[in-house]
Amino acid sequence: MMLLTGGLGYIGSHTAVELLDNDQDVVIVDNLSNSQIDVKDKIQKITGKSIKFYEGDVRDADLMDKIFSENKIDTVIHFAGFKAVGESTKIPIEYYKNNIDSTLVLLEAMKKHNVKNLVFSSSATVYGKAKSMPIFEDFPLSASNPYGRTKLFIEEILKDVHAADPSFNIAILRYFNPVGAHESGIIGENPNGIPNNLMPYITRVATKKLDLLHVFGNDYETHDGTGVRDYIHVCDLAHGHLKAAQKLENNPGLVVYNLGTGTGYSVLDMVKAFESSCKVSVPYVIDERRPGDIDTCFASPEKAEKELGFKATRTLEDMCKSSFNFEVNNK
Ligand code: NAD
Ligand code: UD1
User: Fold this and answer.
1) 29 pLDDT tier (thresholds 50, 70, 90)
2) What ranges do the domains of the chain cover?
3) CATH topology of domain 2-180+231-260
């Protein structure tokens, strides 16, 4: 049985579907700080299977004790946390408290209940401004904002925990840019307010909820001057978690994998792909660079392919169409 912290969120919900589709039993704990309770029913509707759900905070040690006592959990996937870079610069204490404390409480509960397999949601943000592309897992790490530092610190904590107890198996997954939605159009990414990230902003312009996309800079060192990123379909990403959880069954110790496609697309590539895949127009203006952004960021997906047998298969068209489908379905 697998425990998903933050399992009603964007990536957690798609991973829950992937695990249930592969006959895994799933328990979710989520405090609904950035998700809705109806996602639970939606996961069950898509899969035709039931999940056990606890509403509450991972930082609540008594609750975690109860969850581990009531369920035979062998693997935990730890998604719970805050994730908005801009917000993290304004309320850093909340970010450190939520992201780091939740991990510590979870690790204590795992230790107490002798659960030794953990998959952790890290981010490509831990590579900072990488020296070259593609990015390999052994590149130097750095962070330039509180959110990124929470990921970096948690990675260090996990390394210490594994060093102290080598029977702990930990997969640190560094996600590149997750986009897209489940093909059913039932679950997807549904940020509150004005989206910070590119794809949800595009879908809102395409559905006329927002007027114009603001392209943050066209003077980067890239093929068309706009920022290049490695967009990965969230259902591929979800499959990566299944593969990582399976890897942990063979006692690999602490392992680190990029989850990306290895291909970079610019902001304007994304706009064009969206327009042609979804037959809609996405009007845009070129704006100032967003502070803290880098030119280019894309993964080497080789290690995950070699060691996990994981390869992203969905196309850019799949990413655009499924994002649009979810936005239209969830008016
Ligand atoms: P999300 O906000 O949609 O999901 C996180 C879930 O965790 C939410 O349902 C929220 O209610 C819950 N949560 C937060 N704090 C909690 C707590 N203390 N106790 C219980 N539940 C709590 O985010 P997501 O996009 O699904 O991201 C999942 C993880 O992946 C996060 O750790 C995030 O930092 C990481 N990540 C995300 C991206 C991305 O682009 N989405 C990229 C890299 C890494
Ligand atoms: C952001 C986070 C990063 C996180 C990642 C995945 C920042 C600075 N970084 O990365 O920590 O791991 O999301 O969730 O927030 N863009 C526009 N207009 C927009 C929005 C974005 O032009 O309205 C551009 C950006 O400048 C960038 C690209 O689109 O070149 C992708 O942006 P975004 O989706 O926010 O992701 P990242 O910045 O890569």
Assistant:
1) very high
2) 2-180+231-260
3) Rossmann fold (3.40.50)
